[in-house]
Amino acid sequence: MELTIPSMSDIKRAHTRIARHILQTPVLTSHSIDEMVGASVYFKCENFQKVGAFKMRGAVNAIFSIVPENRTKGFATHSSGNHAQAVALASKMAGVKAYIVMPSNSAEVKKNAAIGYGAEVIFCEPTLKSREDTLKKVIAETGATFIPPYDDPAIIAGQATAAKELMEEVVDLNVVMAPVGGGGLLSGTALACHYLSPKTAVIGAEPELADDAYQSVKKGKLMPAKPPVTIADGLRTSLSPLTFEIIRNHVKEIVTVSETEIVDAMRIIWERMKIIIEPSCAVPFAALLKRKEEFKGQKIGIILTGGNVDLEDLPFGKSFAK
């Protein structure tokens, strides 16, 4: 099957399409963090995006690229949280119903938010097979259109707009870093850099306990994920053929980090920048801290992907196996 890789024109059209439905999030810096890592770090704050995550970009682009007469039966997806909220709100904006299949172990804050945006939430077992099987039943019963979490050119083009905005605001970045789960954001980021700033290296970051992307790139073929038990709940998904193809061609490397490194990085951003980020969001900063000697004196862009945390279950003070 031929894979459809978004072009620069696709990304520009996506940006125009979604502009009035999303927020152009700020790029923040921290002098203390710059001193800590010995580099200039620019954080693209998608934790301030609608629904609290970058996922809003892809969901809005995918839904509003469909003509209104084909939206009437609503939209459906499966997601552990942020994509669920994005599809729920984007569907509400489009005036139609959303059906969201969520794993039973999804964070309470993300479950409640999807319901709050008016979606009908259907819970399933926390496995990819259960997600997909449950979604098939929902679509068969409702006729809703599937909005994939990441394996879709419209989703990837939408996610690419975050990096596009970052590079338009901060020129001559040496590196852009983003986390990787299913690979929609990292794929979009890699394409945006490839088209707009080909000298900028793109680096993915992934939990050691959910390192299928790292293993796939290392071995040159899609590798099945081991059961993901990472605190970074947004990164428990696996690459698709489309995201893998883009990542292996346009991402310099993928760095893996431990659970302790994720929580430590998350805490530093909370403490030094006074902003809320979720564990998945901290993964690329954890990778930068781990490898900071390699990046001294450089201009580093990091996409802070989301800020949806369950305040009743914060990880600070807990111990994790290294």
Describe the structure.
The chain is of the alpha/beta class and about 325 residues long. The chain folds into 2 domains: about 10-55 and about 155-305, Rossmann fold (3-Layer(aba) Sandwich), CATH 3.40.50.1100; about 55-145, 3-Layer(aba) Sandwich (Rossmann fold), CATH 3.40.50.1100. It has 12 helices and 10 strands. It has helices at about 10-20, 30-35, 55-65, 80-95, 110-115, 130-140, 155-170, 185-195, 210-220, 240-250, 260-275, 280-290; strands spanning about 25-30, 40-45, 75-80, 100-105, 120-125, 145, 175-180, 200-205, 255, 300-305. A 6-stranded mixed beta sheet has the order 1-2-10-7-8-9, sandwiched between helices. The protein has a 4-stranded parallel beta sheet with strand order 5-4-3-6, sandwiched between helices. α8 (about 185-195) links the parallel β7 and β8 (about 200-205). α1 (about 10-20) crosses α7, α3 crosses α7 (about 155-170) and α8 packs parallel to α10. It is globular, with a radius of gyration of 18 Å. The relative contact order is 0.17.
